[in-house]
Write a structure and sequence with these properties.
The chain has 491 residues and is an alpha/beta fold. Helix content is 39%, strand content 14%. It has a 6-stranded mixed beta sheet with strand order 1-9-8-12-10-11. Strand 14 and strand 15 form a beta hairpin. It comes from Actinoplanes lobatus.
Amino acid sequence: MSTAQVPPVTAIGTPRITAGFDEYGRLDLLAHQEVHGGFAALSSGELIGLADRIELRGRGGAGFPFARKVRAVVDSCRRQELPPVIVVNATEGEPPSWKDKAILTRGPHLILDGAALAAAALDAEEIVIGVADDGVGQESLAAALAERKMPCPTRIVLVPHRFISGEGGALVRGINGEAHIPPGRKVRSSDNGVMGLPTLLSNAETYSQLAIAARLGPWEYNAVGIPEEPGTVMLTIGGSASAPAVVEAPTGTSLMEVLEMCGADIGPGLLVGGYHGKWVSAEQAKTIQISRKGFAKVGGTLGAGMLIPIGSKTCPVGEVAQVVQYLAGESAGQCGPCRIGLPDLARAVTLVSLGGNAVEQVRQAAGLVKGRGACSHPDGSSRFALSALEVFRADVQAHSNGEGCGKPVRGILPLPYTAEKGARKLALDWSRCDGHGLCSAVAPEIIRLDHNGFPAFPQTPLPPWLEDGARKAVNVCPALALRLTEPTTAK
């Protein structure tokens, strides 16, 4: 099974989750047992006690205490007299993130161990593992399942490789055969999840950490890292890093140590927590220790462990504009703040990147979507954009003055569709456009009219799921001014 798409994996200190990766590449069942050994089954009370003692929190972004999730499922099962379902979220839909895919492709049995522990402890009806349909990890996971016996029926569900598809509610909906989008209202999976059953849902690394802790016990597990957040974390270092990698590091490790080992040029800023995270300055980055508390000190978040230095050779404003356009395209389209507000935010940020004095428009657009969405997507997108204005203030000023920063947009912040065969972008022939406005009426999530009544839209490739709307807009243009073209990928 190829792991070529996944960045190199390394560790600071003694590896735990990544143990054996250097020696075996990918651990089949025999190698896995040789490296990690066996473990004893746990009761539900013992499972909760272990998770409590090691302060285990979800590693998918929100950092919710795992023990509280288990307690909620146990209580719900008793109250409803129903068996639970165990769900492993291994979708990893954010373009910069690779740490779960590294475990899927190289240490899949750890994920299965953690899921099996939870299933046996709770007497689960089924285990469901959600994996992205991008071809990374599915084959390795299926091979691992074929090598072993699980405590209950276990299946893999393929999920569209989209930003929002990995949200917990979206994953449950997808498993249930519905659209892979957030439900639009707060639904507790512990009460009503897969097929209406109480569902324990957590991310792939979380189950892997549980499997490590079951072998080591709380005392030895807590011997590594800082007391309030013991153990190790899996990190993805990308962006401007000359040696991008997935790194396993003990909590309390200096952020600069991790960045330096990956040859990262921070430049003016570093993105922490992914595309729903926050930009921090280079000076702030020098003060951070790897932990939730460490990132919180500078107003950031560890999230799903993505560290993305922007570097000094790309235009940060242009990079941010492309990502905000992407995030607008990732909308589930089920509420106004996403369907209308995020495109407005994307246009405002794009205007700043093109030399317009639109900083206040960005703040206004971000303020209008914040706290008003059916899910967290508008909040995360606005946080990404607003923190960029602050950290890249000098570059924003240079663009607003019409001078620009003089640097090209090099695609340091990865997007999933720029290299896809057949991805297209909208283009406008200004000599033909008469400002009829029909295109914006047909595809308002892509095209809006500017203050002169002419169409305005992102200059980056269209996500595939927005192509139908763009094609309809092209077809209704009476002047034949609008067209779809192949994208130009920045070098």
